């Protein structure tokens, strides 16, 4: 007998944690688990939606658009996070210099 979606997910998340995987690995695993659950890869859990062809095709198109938008948003957020890290580094360096100047002035 195979695993349920929940059992599979828990086993995979535990493996990721034991191997030191990051949040991106966890997110990808959860997304893959949801897909496999919808596709019926787990025991007795095939979901039948009963959609006509036009509705199914429209949902597929919207899903692909949503996925593409999500990928682009992640790229944008990653760039912004890098820029913020650079600015934080600059501010920290400036604060260290300012503190050093003040300490030198106080003791000098």
Structural key phrases:
elongated; single chain; 0% strand; 3 helices; 2 domains; 79% helix; 108 residues; mainly alpha
Order of helices and strands: HHH
Number of strands: 0
Tally of separate helices: 3
Cα-to-Cα separation, first versus last residue: 78 Å
Low-pLDDT runs of 5+ residues are none
Main pleated-sheet profile = none
Q: Measured on Cα atoms, how large is the radius of gyration? A: 24 Å
| Tally of individual domains | 2
Mean pLDDT: 91
What structural category characterises the helix and strand content?
mainly alpha
How much of the sequence lies in strands comes to under 5%
Q: Which percent range fits the helix content?
A: over 70%
Shape: elongated
Describe the structure.
This protein folds into 2 domains: 1-48; 51-108. The relative contact order is 0.06. It has 3 helices and no strands. It is elongated. It has helices spanning 5-18, 23-38, 53-107. The protein is mainly alpha-helical. The longest helix has 55 residues, at 53-107.
């Amino acid at each position: 007998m195979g695993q349920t979606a929940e059992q599979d997910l828990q086993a995979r998340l535990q493996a990721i944690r034991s191997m030191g995987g990051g949040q991106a690995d966890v997110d990808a695993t959860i997304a893959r688990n949801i897909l496999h659950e919808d596709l019926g890869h787990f025991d007795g859990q095939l979901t039948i939606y009963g959609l006509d062809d036009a509705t199914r095709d429209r949902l597929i198109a919207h899903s692909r658009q949503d996925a593409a938008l999500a990928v682009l948003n992640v790229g944008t957020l990653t760039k912004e996070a890098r820029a913020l890290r650079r600015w934080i580094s600059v501010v920290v360096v400036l604060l260290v210099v300012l503190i050093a100047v003040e300490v030198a002035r106080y003791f000098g």
